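Hi W.,

Here's what went into the run:
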Amino acid sequence: MMSTQFGLIMSALFVSMILAFITLMVATVQRIDYMEDLLSKSKFVSGSKALYARAGLTGRVLRVCIVSTLLMMPRLFALKGLADLEQVRQFRRGLKVFLVSMWGVVLLSVLCVVCLDLLCR
Amino acid sequence: MTSDDYVRSPCFINPQAQSYESLKAATPMSANQRAKFEPACTLGRDEECRRSKFVLGGGLVGSAGGGVAGGAVGVAAGTIVCAMVLGIPNFGSGGVACAVVGGVVGAKYLGELGSEAGEVAGEFIYGKVIP
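Here's what came out:
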């Protein structure tokens, strides 16, 4: 069993992770087709759309994660020819900021949880 | 409903049961649930039983939330690692395999950690809320 302080820090990280994840999904899961249309020239997005198109709600959630990741680090994907930087630049700014910030909170929380777990073991 | 029906039903506790042994027989649980629940929720130990509800409830919330978020992050991470490092395209069977492996690892790891953290938070809340 974890110590109280360690457990509470972990719990706070989990709460922030879960809240950011739920907010991201509730706000964007219905608009995933529109977002993918805005990034239609990116192979990474079209590939994930083809892969998860028939996976229902789970597939939509995963496609939101993949679009958010691509918007977060477009240059990395462009290096491998998986993203079109011009389309990423023209992506709706408000939506892009929302996706990147919420997904960033989720990833940062996961990173902190993993680091804390590794440090305290 | 007869006494035998209550014993067979997974949703009811036999109202005629008076002793702990007969309550146990009438309340179907998995071995794991019983191991966690039994010591606290026996007759005459209400305080311990209430505490275990907070602790196990916190563990459940942490496990479910951590599992879902961990699974999604794991799928994204698995797909990206395969696409960027191994050069496997994110469609076809290779992409599915990467996504499944990432998702399972992420969900299991964060689900277990979330369960532990949730139990600690549940115990803390119990200590603060219940005087």
